[in-house]
Known about the structure:
alpha+beta; Heat Shock Protein 90; eight-stranded mixed β-sheet; five-stranded mixed β-sheet; 22 strands; 35% helix
Amino acid sequence: MSQIRRLDSRLSARIAAGEVIERPQSVVRELLDNAVDAGAKEITLSIRGGGIDEILVSDDGGGIMKDDLPLAVTQYATSKIATLDDLYHLHTMGFRGEALYSISAVSRLTIASSYEGQKPWTMTVDNMVAEDLVPIGPDRGTMVKVENLFSHIPARRAFLKRPSSEGTLCRNTFLAKAMAFEKIHFRFIQDGVLKVDLPVRNGIFDRVMDILTLEENFNRKEFVYLEKKCRDFTIRLVTSLSGIHRSDRSRIRTYVNDRPVDEYALVQAVVYGYGEILPGGAFPWSVLFVDDDPELVDFNIHPAKREVKLRNKAEIHHEIHQLIHSSLPREIPTISAGAGDDDQPLLEPAARSTTSWQDPVFTHDRIKYASGRQGTSHAQQAEAVAQKPRDSAWLEKAKTLFSSPKEERHVTTSVSAQEFWKPDRASFTYLGQAFRLFLVCQKDDALYLVDQHAAHERILFNELRQQRDVQRLLIPLEFEVDPDVDAFLAENSYIYTQYGITIAQKDDRLWELTSIPHSAKENEKKLVSFIQNAVGSEEEIEAGLYAIVACKAAIKAGDTLDDQSAIALLEKVFELEDPSCPHGRTFVIRLSEKELRLMVGRTK
Ligand SMILES: Nc1ncnc2c1ncn2[C@@H]1O[C@H](COP(=O)(O)OP(=O)(O)OP(=O)(O)O)[C@@H](O)[C@H]1O
Ligand SMILES: [Mg+2]
């Protein structure tokens, strides 16, 4: 007797549904996509019991004809594409004709619709069993209700989280969808309570900010909108200025043709764009929209359409990097209360014009003082100071300082590294560690505060450049790459060789990693995944390697350092040509004795 048999249609439908519908969140994603495709101007999502009990999406779009209702829930039935060619000219979210079919296999699905305002009809399919059509429904648009998800499949239901967690996932999907369509009014109702209401907006910046400020107390002024039109694609980006950042990449969200996607290369392009603006290990809040020619995009690779193949990925990557790099305001006003015997600023973070002072109160004060210079009266300046008196003596000193005749010489520019930095490991006295971040030492007539993590990172990276310690891998690591990366590597593998990373092409799109720098040991997999995705200029590749190799191995902020290690590190720091990371961010602060004395009102 034959061992192979055809599965019955209900079983095969449920297996197929498992690919598309994993949890309530997947239903929300599919129903919202359908409402958007229907041309709706208003979409409301309502869930009960975290979406496990009920999910309801109503829209005011074009609707479904009575005769099409039974078709809509059959497999591979769609109004959105007709030929293979259409798949490469997609302007809709849906294209497989599989979502409603899958949902109907694992729940009780009700679709009520009025086609272009005509008499409405309602159809119900309960776990693949269709009921008769009934002549009721909304006056316009479509209402889709999904009840009792997985009630017939206990094994699937057991995998669901608690309703509150499933509800949060539904909300996240709702917000992710609403982010891209500012011309649609979206509402989210949870257990009968209106939780989110997103009115129509004129521009994407406002919609993104409406959503970001739901969870965070952001000021819109802390974000900017950047846009660039290229031949085949447009980039739109809402992104935070340098004052706001977090320690992971999770708030860099990427969209391709209005669909949220997980595309590492796009996230990486944003991070590279910021390279020199944010401190190491800090990432922005960004929402990136790439609107690409549909012919160059393939979404038909992942059941939840979370992944995308972009034929022009390298070019898009490059343009995102350039856009941020060239357009993001990067100057942070810096204090300088003047008042010295010469024109040196009173207090200045070392080196470059981009600094990374983190204390918001201090930054705020500094901005006030700097703007005072441009025409505010002395009285106003004194008032600005008075707003935050720490003690009255301090206030008096500050007043004297700020009303001194030298005040006109306040400057807001930074001193360049060369003005105070000469490589020299000559004697310094190590004073200790502050905040488990700064190594504090006295050298000549100044105090130096050195960011231990960034400094170590720089030193490790220099060693990497000099290829002091390259290791051959006993077993080379093979990896596959996309065609664009393949072409990139064929021409640019030398960039990696400079850092002791040797890669060789084995076959079409197949490469192997044969040697790595010692400091990248245990990070081979990360390195491979970086190489698999990285395309860009030498500078961009260097920044990426810096993050993987040096940052991982370096002493962390928060590590306690013993005196010996601290002194050894400081010796190396004082030998550096330039105390900044490859992109110009400084990690040394210098406070001269004269400046410090002046700050406490001593002129001698
Ligand atoms: N809210 C709606 N308004 C109007 N028509 C709808 C709506 N929802 C579904 N439809 C119709 O039902 C069809 C089937 O929907 P379904 O979501 O199963 O497939 P799809 O959207 O075509 O493709 P995909 O499986 O990729 O989502 C759609 O092609 C569309 O014609
Ligand atoms: Mg669909």
